[in-house]
Amino acid sequence: MIKPIAWDKGAVVVLDQRELPHRVRYLRCRGVEQLARAVEVLAVRGAPLIGIAGAYGLALGVRRSAPGTVKRDFQKALRRMARTRPTAVNLFWALERMERSFRDSAERGGRAMPARMLGEARRIHAEDAAICAGIGRHGAGLIKKGSTVLTHCNTGALATGGIGTALGIITTAYGRGRVKMVYVDETRPLLQGARLTLWELQRQGIPATLVCDNMAAGLMAGGRVACVLVGADRIADNGDFANKIGTYGLAVLARHHRVPFYVAAPTTTVDVAVKSGAAIPVEHRHPDEVTSIRGNPIARAGSAAYNPAFDVTPAGLVTALVTERGVIRPPFGSLRKRLSL
Amino acid sequence: MIKPIAWDKGAVVVLDQRELPHRVRYLRCRGVEQLARAVEVLAVRGAPLIGIAGAYGLALGVRRSAPGTVKRDFQKALRRMARTRPTAVNLFWALERMERSFRDSAERGGRAMPARMLGEARRIHAEDAAICAGIGRHGAGLIKKGSTVLTHCNTGALATGGIGTALGIITTAYGRGRVKMVYVDETRPLLQGARLTLWELQRQGIPATLVCDNMAAGLMAGGRVACVLVGADRIADNGDFANKIGTYGLAVLARHHRVPFYVAAPTTTVDVAVKSGAAIPVEHRHPDEVTSIRGNPIARAGSAAYNPAFDVTPAGLVTALVTERGVIRPPFGSLRKRLSL
After folding, report:
1. ipTM computed for the complex
2. Phi and psi torsions of A310, nearest 5°
3. Which of B73, B233, B237, B240 is flagged as catalytic?
4. At what angle do helices A247-256 and B247-256 cross, to 10 degrees?
5. Crossing angle, helix B113-140 and helix B47-61, to 10 degrees?
6. Report field, pTM of the whole predicted structure over 0.90
7. Domains defined for chain B, CATH in brackets
8. Is B256 part of the contact surface with chain A (CB cutoff 8 Å)?
9. Which is catalytic among the residues A73, A128, A185, A233?
């Protein structure tokens, strides 16, 4: 399986996903700033993976800290990592968990702190792999034998510490002989579907067909999509969720065509502090990502463009939510209560 | 106004739209084959413009024909031009009109045939300009003051012999102070929105914002789209219509958000021989158009991709159809009867 992130001799080594599928190149991040930049420029992306990167970032920030400076170094790293991406809540969840671990360890004396922080980051990483496996197992039961499915963006091994969320369901279901073929939305502007998901599926020998985002409606009208599977970057308490731009449109199209629409995410993606989708902060990125494609301009320099990285899908359009705990269906009521979070 | 096609001293000069917006380059087509290729590779595109190109192609085919060979030359040119693009019916309409003119002229003696064919092609071209003006005038009345509108693909001066169809409505309405801003779908795979529509609007000083195709749903949910305007490549007798891939999805999204969805086309786009959308032939193009963008691969070589150039929108999703004769609303019944075609 692809390893998009690893701790290696005092550095965080990340696969530079901007270069895929053309080059498999790793970045060796020796400091917090370098890792934070890697997250900001999307060398490292995917909600669960951003959380893991956040945790390793804090371990990196204190790896050489003396007991007298460890708290300051930790706080500095925490502020820097928290500033990288605003929408995926897994990042903030991971940072908070590291903070709790820091506080607990601090009470027991600070000398072992670097090792403790690294240990906690490694646990978060390993737990995510187990969570993915659980999501894959639960979700695979939703896929009927012989299904052709549609997915958006990348929610696979490249986005997580394990086999992925929505894509993990697809690969698990494929292993059980249930998936015939996968339509992969290219996912403009940054083409995570074309560059990452298609590549992951090809490496696993799973039949996959690339489509432009605007082709999904025609595929559904033609009866060519058994179900849609997507991930989530943040899920509100009522089940509304933010995910890669284009997800909401797919949900509306799926509803119109009576195609099941499944969302897969770890329970850590649920932000119980956010009551509904309207309160989820949506990151807007540079217009250049829209006016050019991989460095090649498609419009005149200085053209105006709109570039929200995410959109918000109301819970009512979700057929089922798959977490590591199982499958739940709307009406969700309060996910905090429903999932005992 | 931009002139995407012109007859010039025995040749058909076309603006090579593949190079826009980066270079304004013209191709001088001295023979039918060269012009047919220009249509096939989309140097010349847009349903009405393809019709005009077809007419000029026949004029080109007979421009040096002697009375003894003119019929054979005409038929050869006709077959070649008819083979270029299967979906836009304006092409077949224009070719049939040229054929009728050829037959009428043949009865009156063949020596003047080259001049007659050129005259008929020029008439088709000039009539299209008048048709566009009519569509613009009728359609502008649909746009409320201060509207932000969304359009897909390119339906402007670059696609027609005049100011355009859907885009002609937008520019006419802008002239009347009714349009505040235009969201332009980039229109993958070939980016006609980003490359052509945005460029046309910028040249006219009309505020325009480029969006990826998958952003339209979020814009509508945010109440940022007053109406959607699109063109058509072929309209069935019942009002179902084929247009650039992605149009159908927009129609579903517009319906879901109660956003008016307007279709603009000359009456020649109605194919009364086709009863419903299911019978419209949809052109599928090379997968390379999806797996690469302007020559730069976005997926590994040999990746499978699906590439229908068009999708079909059922009449029931159309708020109104704008032709040069006026605005009509569904249920259309039979367009042949409704428009006295």
Report:
1. 0.96
2. -140, 160
3. B233
4. 80
5. 170
6. yes
7. 5-133 (1.20.120.420), 139-338 (3.40.50.10470)
8. yes
9. A233
